[in-house]
């Protein structure tokens, strides 16, 4: 039997497995661009931060990557697959943890988990394994029989994350998950997210809190008015101006100042 001949592009796609590729993405609302020719690559097992002020385009980008919103121009590939033609297949391998809580207050923690597993047809050994993982990493063991509506803000956020883990996703999208919770819960959730790297999961994390990006992310992109104004490893971004005192917040202020933007 003759051996199949593989093209260079085939091997490139195999190497890129588990990555997100965005090329010249443009999204407009009522004729006004929300994203302008945005391009980025996110590797497997990377925690990637999307940093920007409210209205910068972070949530718009997350919505597009999850197939919740369309776009006018550009190309998106996830796991080497074009997003538009493979949305259902891609979604099975990803999860979105939104700002708003997706849970039922009148159900217990374990009832919520079983309900959301059921609507995704997660059963058998997969259900048991995924439940144990979701409960363990979010420290929900002692709250399983408690009504979700009686949980603290931080506990509800952890339940929200646990629900998102039920399909054992390879890519997790977090859209500002620490809004409105106490400092202790915030630290706990950030530590949970950082540990996903050990499980070889890819995380895309949006925030306007610069310290969160610095604490958990390997790479980041700074977005303003729908455009990427800087992206790269955290180390490279922080060393950009050869200033030992430079942190992400001071870099962000420097890059988004009116003088810089109008230069």
From TrEMBL:
Residues 20-250 form the ABC transporter domain. SMART domains: AAA. Keywords: ATP-binding, Nodulation, Nucleotide-binding, Transport. One of its GO terms (molecular function) is ATP binding. Pfam families: ABC_tran. PROSITE patterns: ABC_TRANSPORTER_1, ABC_TRANSPORTER_2. InterPro entries: AAA+_ATPase, ABC_transporter-like_ATP-bd, ABC_transporter-like_CS, ABC_transporter_ATP-binding, P-loop_NTPase. SUPFAM superfamilies: P-loop containing nucleoside triphosphate hydrolases (SSF52540). PANTHER family: ABC TRANSPORTER ATP-BINDING PROTEIN, ABC TRANSPORTER ATP-BINDING PROTEIN NATA. Belongs to the ABC transporter superfamily. This is ABC-type multidrug transport system, ATPase component.
């Amino acid at each position: 039997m003759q051996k199949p001949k593989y093209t260079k592009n085939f091997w490139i796609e195999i190497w890129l497995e588990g990555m997100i590729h965005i090329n010249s993405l443009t999204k407009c609302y009522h004729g006004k661009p929300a994203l302008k020719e945005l391009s980025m690559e996110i590797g497997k097992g990377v925690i990637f931060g999307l940093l920007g002020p409210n209205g910068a385009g972070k949530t718009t980008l997350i919505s597009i990557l999850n197939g919740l919103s369309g776009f006018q121009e550009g190309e998106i590939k996830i796991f080497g697959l074009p997003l538009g033609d493979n949305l259902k297949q891609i979604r099975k391998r990803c999860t979105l943890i939104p700002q708003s809580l997706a849970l039922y207050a009148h159900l217990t923690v374990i009832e919520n988990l079983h309900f959301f597993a059921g609507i995704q047809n997660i059963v058998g050994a997969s259900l048991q394994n995924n439940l144990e993982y979701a409960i363990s990493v979010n420290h929900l063991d002692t709250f399983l029989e408690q009504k979700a509506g009686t949980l603290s803000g931080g506990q509800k956020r952890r339940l929200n994350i646990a629900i998102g883990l039920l399909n054992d996703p390879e890519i997790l999208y977090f859209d500002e998950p620490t809004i409105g919770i106490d400092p202790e819960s915030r630290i706990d959730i950030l530590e949970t997210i950082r540990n996903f790297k050990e499980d070889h999961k890819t995380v895309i994390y949006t925030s306007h809190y610069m310290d969160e990006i610095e604490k958990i992310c390997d790479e980041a992109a700074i977005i303003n008015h729908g455009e990427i104004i800087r992206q790269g490893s955290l180390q490279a971004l922080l060393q950009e101006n050869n200033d030992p005192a430079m942190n992400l917040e001071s870099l962000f202020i420097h890059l988004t100042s009116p003088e810089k933007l109008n230069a």
